[in-house]
Amino acid sequence: MSDEIVKRTQETAKTLFGKGAKMDPPYLMWREFDKDLANEFSKFITGNLYSRTVLTIQERQMAACAMMAALRAAGELKLHVNAALNVGCDPRKLAEIFFQVATYAGMPAVNEALEVYREVLKERGEWPIK
Q1: What is the CATH number of the domain that holds 82?
Q2: Phi-psi region of 55 (alpha: psi -120 to 50; beta: other; left: phi over 0)
Q3: In the chain, which residues have pLDDT < 50?
Q4: What is the C-alpha separation between 93 and 10, in angstroms, rounded?
Q5: For residue 39, is it left (φ>0), alpha (ψ between -120 and 50) or beta?
Q6: Nearest one of 106, 64, 112, 110 to 89, comparing CA atoms
């Protein structure tokens, strides 16, 4: 079972974070503090949770982007926007999700999310949205 979780973790992490991000994933920082705990977090989040099939990986990433936008967690949002685009989320739907955040977190959260989103799209050479 442990080998299977490690394999799923690696495959899912590569799918989500294998390209596009111009930043180190939080996992690298976690490892600096506690390698074993970092590995356990990674196996749980990426190997167990993100590899479940109740939601598609695209749906999980859109939910993560909405939550990061509402929390105004710009660094995490940048990582998850890249991941969402890596797994094929529609760029127009991501923009719509950020506008939806206004209802729950206000326009400052929307503005910050859109700024992060535009920055990521520019870094990826995908701006403007078509």
Answers
A1: 1.20.1290.10
A2: beta
A3: none
A4: 27
A5: alpha
A6: 64
pTM of the predicted structure, to 2 decimals: 0.91
Contacts of 98 (CB under 8 A, 6+ apart): 65, 66, 69, 110, 113, 114, 117
Tokens 């930043």 sit at which residue? Answer: 23
What is the residue range of 53's domain? 2-123
User: 86: which 2 tokens?
Assistant: 């890596």
User: What is the token pair recorded at 14?
Assistant: 């590569």
> What is the rounded CA–CA span in Å between residue 67 and residue 41?
19
**CA quadruple 22, 28, 29, 31: dihedral, nearest 10:** 180
Domain count for the chain: 1
Percent of the chain with pLDDT over 90: 86
Whether omega before 25 lies within 30 degrees of 0, making that bond cis, reads no
Distance, CA of 3 to CA of 99 (rounded, Å):
41
Is the separation of the CB atoms in 63 and 91 below 8 Å? no
